[in-house]
Amino acid sequence: MVDREKVLEIIEGYRGQDGILIQLLLDLQAEFNWIPREAISIVSEQLRVPKSQIYRIASFYKAMSLCPVGRHSIQVCMGTACQVRGAQKVLDLTGSRLMIKPGETTHDMSFSLRRVNCLGCCAMGPVIVVDKDYHGNVTAEGVDRIIERYD
Amino acid sequence: MPKLTSVRDLEELRREILSERGGEDPNRLWIAICAGTGCLALGAGRVIDAFKAELEKRGLAEAIEIKETGCPGFCEKGTIVVVNPAGICYLQVRPEDVPEIVEETIQKGRLVDRLLYEDPITAEKAIYEDQIPFYKHQMRLLIKDNIKINPKNIDDYIALGGYRALAEVLSGMSPDEVIEVIKRSHLRGRGGGGFPTGVKWEATRSASGQPKYIIINCDEGDPGAFMDRALMEGNPHSVLEGLIIGAYAIGSSQGYIYVRMEYPLAVENSLLALEQAREYGLLGKDILGSGFDFDVRLHRGAGAFVSGESTALMNALEGKVGEPRPKYVHTSQSGVWNRPSCLNNVETLANIPLIINSGADWFCSIGTERSKGTKIFSLVGKVNNTGLVEVPMGMSLNDIIFKIGGGIPGGKRIKGAQTGGPSGGVIPEEYLDTAIDFDELTNLGSMMGSGSIIVLDEDTCAIDLARYFVDFLCDESCGKCVPCREGLRRMREILNGIVSGKGEEGDLDKLEEIARLMRAASLCALGRTAVNPFLSTLNHFRDEYEAHIREKRCPALVCKPLVSYFIQPEVCIGCRLCQKSCPRAAISGEEKEASVIDQSLCTRCGVCLDVCPPKIRAITKTSGKSSDSHSSGMRNANSGSSHKASRGDRS
Ligand SMILES: Cc1cc2nc3c(=O)[nH]c(=O)nc-3n(C[C@H](O)[C@H](O)[C@H](O)COP(=O)(O)O)c2cc1C
Ligand code: FES
Q: Which of B42, B401, B426, B471 to mutate to test the interface with A (most CBs of A within 10 A)?
């Protein structure tokens, strides 16, 4: 169950402002790590916007997830700079170690894997971000070591 | 904090800050440590902690200030530490190095040699920034202060003369005069289009309707560009000052900062900057007693490339899905909530205070005939010194890549450079001598875009790169218009076929036809320019396309389905490192005997080649007809491409 009070509190922070739907959904995403269905119902009810409009936004943006994600989020940068330095290999290896594809979560809910486009530290590509930790110049062997740290 | 109610208050405050900081004592020691996203990722946080602990331990914590600054651009060599006032520049500093720096440099005034920049050829050491080739050949106007400022403290910006341009504008210039100066400076927008900023401001000023909006575009969607991040997180007040001046010029009372949420530090520092500017009365009602009211809200982008486009961004500000709308009416007439709106890129706005302070003539003295001032490029990819480089418009790519970037790693050959991101194109080696500005890059079939330069070496496949961008744009296309949505999908399909050995005669004609159509009929510039990566690679590397299609060969040995790996039995010493690291257990063989790769199990991930010891180099990668002959036991086949395991670079 989602914490109704928390959702209401986030909505309250934006009372009286226009054009805040995206900001509000980002806050919900940050709070729950995904945007649960109940939260969408509450937002729809409180702001009097159709659910369809909320789903349209939540499904459009990469930063929002409509299904639960793992305890640790792994983001592999697939920006151009990382790409030419072997990001595809890093992504493939990470995927095969966790036995999931980008966009998926492991069965035990410990890891979710995502591709992102450029995290702004291109000088250190390929880059992986686990939760909030950045790892630069990642090599094939490095992938294992990084994942192990969060097991 | 006191609210400033006049220009005199601001000058008074500046004097106070300077004297509080011992402005009279030029020998005061302070240490600048880069705390930008790049260096933080390399462990700058631990270096900062180590300095604090070490100074504490030696009882120096009171006397010596540690400043956590923005990014000076030399990300390759992070963590960067500068010991001031001398300006001694230490690179690649780790927490272990800190006690030595404090003991030697701070206490005894001696250098720590091994942390200085060393020229890779002459082995000569450089002590100061301006002796390091990476910095020496730059002209750093916009990012020079990043390493001197704590972006979380407005006083640092003010101490260096910040908000002086705003004071000048508010105390003595009419909006029309401001617009006139910007027009005369010929400043062109750094967001990609290169539209003259003064003209845009004038159009928004003369449009009817209130309120008017002015917006900072820090969506920085080009994957491979990070100059806007560095400015927004490293010196946010310089951008904000430009925004306030712009607001005054066009007559806007409400501004927005649109920052992508993939830049959490830029979001944090922008919010702080807004808060501190408000407390000083540099935002809000009656700014500096001039009667001018203006405030700013921050909007986080949620991860969509297309939302950086002006109409899409304005939709997002209204809380709607960030996809473009047709531009029958220009956004300067009807943008956010159908009101006149002006969108400017981060770097564009950071130029404004400089132009006001030093004048349009000074600005015009820098750059080329039709592109004035400097441009920050992000120099990345296969180049030794990656990072941000700010140079006058008109420098050649060769100078940027070789003089500043220090050339290509691992003794590889340069193949070209990709500029302009997903809307740009590849410039092959032959043209790297061209002086680059907005127009020259367009003439070469690429574009300035946001200023990313991705250096490509011989190990980059042109077709794979084109496929990469088409794939990227396919995911990012909003799907609203058919030419872009369907065109990109068909292009992706065909290119995927080509890189996996299923290319057919006629594919290139089909691709060109789709490209023509997309260029003519797409709704926004995303679709119209999406074909550039393909067209430019086709233009310059047609032979590579043909090799993929006709010979099923990837000359750069990149396209997985077209390459294979082999172990040379006479070279392999049977250490079995490759066997242990193969994720598919496709390699077998006894210890001390040559290993063999089972081609039917091999996924061509290339890990074996990475782990084969550099002294041995038993593994070969090949493409083309020779790969078949290898699998039947033949070696030294000459047709097809092949080269030995090389790992001088980080591919
Ligand atoms: C698909 C697409 C993405 C864009 N992304 C950005 C961006 O991330 N940052 C930016 O400043 N401009 C971006 N632009 C350009 C903007 O539409 C706009 O021209 C620019 O922000 C105007 O600022 P300027 O006049 O200062 O250059 C993009 C354009 C398109 C078509
Ligand atoms: S391309 Fe990976 S961080 Fe920029």
A: B42
Distance, first Cα to last Cα, chain B? 52
Same domain as B106, residue B85 = yes
- H helix intervals, B282-412: 310-317, 346-358, 360-364, 397-398
Note the residue count of chain B.
651
Task: Give the pTM.
Answer: 0.91
H or E segment and range at residue B592: none
End position of a domain, from candidates B363, B396, B425 = B363
Predicted interface score ipTM higher than 0.85: yes
The full set of domains in chain A, from first to last, is: 4-60 (no CATH), 72-150 (3.40.30.10)
Smallest CA–CA distance from A24 into chain B, residue: B319
For residues A111 and B43, give the distance between their C-alpha atoms in angstroms, rounded to a whole number.
24
pLDDT digits (tens, 9 = 90+) for B545-594: 999 999 999 999 999 899 999 999 999 999 999 999 888 899 999 999 99
Shortest Cα distance from A120 to chain B (angstroms)?
A: 5
Determine the Cα–Cα distance for residues B174 and A39; give it in Å rounded to an integer: 50
Amino acid letter at B582?
A: C
Judge if B422 and B451 occupy the same domain.
yes
Q: Do A134 and B221 touch (CB under 8 A)?
A: no
Which of B444, B460, B476 is at the close of a domain?
Answer: B460
Please report which confidence band the pLDDT of residue B53 belongs to, taking 50, 70 and 90 as the band edges. very high
Find chain B residues with C-beta within 8 A of A84's C-beta. Answer: 381-382, 454, 456, 460, 465, 651
Q: How far apart are CA B376 and CA B384, in angstroms?
A: 18
> What is the Cα–Cα distance from B593 to B573, expressed in whole angstroms?
6
Angle in degrees, CA B470, B471, B475, rounded to 5:
115
Position B215: which residue type?
Answer: I
d(CA B561, CA B181): 57
Name B125's bridge partners: B118
Pocket of ligand 1 (CB under 6 A): B 189-193, 195, 197, 200, 217, 219-221, 305-306, 308-310, 343-345, 348, 450, 524-526
Are the beta carbons of B562 and B548 closer than 8 angstroms? Answer: yes
The partner residue sitting opposite A93, judged by closest CB among B78, B221, B583, is B583
Residues B205, B171 within the same domain: yes
What 3 state SS string does B20-35 have?
A: HCCCCCCCCCEEEEEC
Number of domains composing chain B: 5
| Closest chain B C-alpha to A48 CA, distance in angstroms | 14
